[in-house]
Amino acid sequence: VLVENVTTEDCKNGVSFGNTAFPTLRNSTIEAAEYGVRADGNASRGDLKIENTTVKAKKPVIVRKMTTNSYKVALNGADLQTAELYHVVFTKGDDEAAYDAPEAGAFTISGAEDYNVYPMAAGAEYKANSGDQLNSILAAGKDAVLTNDIDIEKIDLTTGTSDVVIDANGYT
Predict the structure, then answer these.
(1) What is the mean pLDDT of each run of 10 residues along the chain (172 residues)?
(2) Can you tell me the distance from the alpha carbon of 99 to that of 94, in angstroms, rounded to the nearest whole number?
(3) Calpha distance 86→99 (Å, rounded)
(4) SS3 for 19-85, per residue?
(5) Which of 35, 41, 50, 101 can bridge 66 by disulfide, Cβ–Cβ 3.0-4.6 Å?
(6) pTM for this prediction
(7) What pLDDT shows up at residue 155?
């Protein structure tokens, strides 16, 4: 299934592929309050591709019900924006409950070098591409690395977290 040249604005949710075989979202702009793109990983029907698309949502990409092996997500020219910790989530559960990490080897992802993927790989750094996301990372007591210049009025460190480090990574 190919969804192409779509724009959503002021929606609760974006595009839901469910158990779709080989879902692709291309040349689109998705703005949604909850999830931007959702797919189910409970069948070996194919892999999710997001190409040349901006997705701005609380959960930009979520692959839920992960019971299959080797589900693949490819982000080619994707711009994922969120104020939350994770840009892409893989979970054995649904997208409404607490995240439940799938078994090792359940998924692979490409093109996510500047994004936070749940579950986080050992030693992975939390990356921030907005001021709101930086505050979410710091509120969770995590160190943050900037992936671009960001505008921020206030950094909130009032949550009682331990020491945190902000690596500007050459950005301001």
Answers:
(1) 95 92 95 95 80 97 87 95 94 86 87 94 90 88 92 74 85 92
(2) 8
(3) 11
(4) CCCCCEEECCEEEECCEEEEEECCCCCCCEEEECCEEECCEEEEEECCCCCCEEEEEECCEEECCCC
(5) 41
(6) 0.90
(7) 78
Order across the sheet with 166-167: list the strands.
Answer: 126-128, 144-146, 166-167
Contact assessment for residue 71 and residue 45, using Cβ atoms and an 8 Å cutoff = no
First to last CA, the chain: 40
The CA distances from residue 57 to 15, 19, 21, 38, 126, in Å, are 11, 21, 24, 11, 18
Task: Output DSSP code: residue 138.
Answer: H
Both tokens of residue 3? 């969804």
Please name the residue that has the structure tokens 């069948």.
43
pLDDT value of position 152: 85
Cα separations in angstroms, 166 against 100, 115, 117, 126, 172: 28, 16, 19, 10, 11
Tokens 């959960």 found at: 59
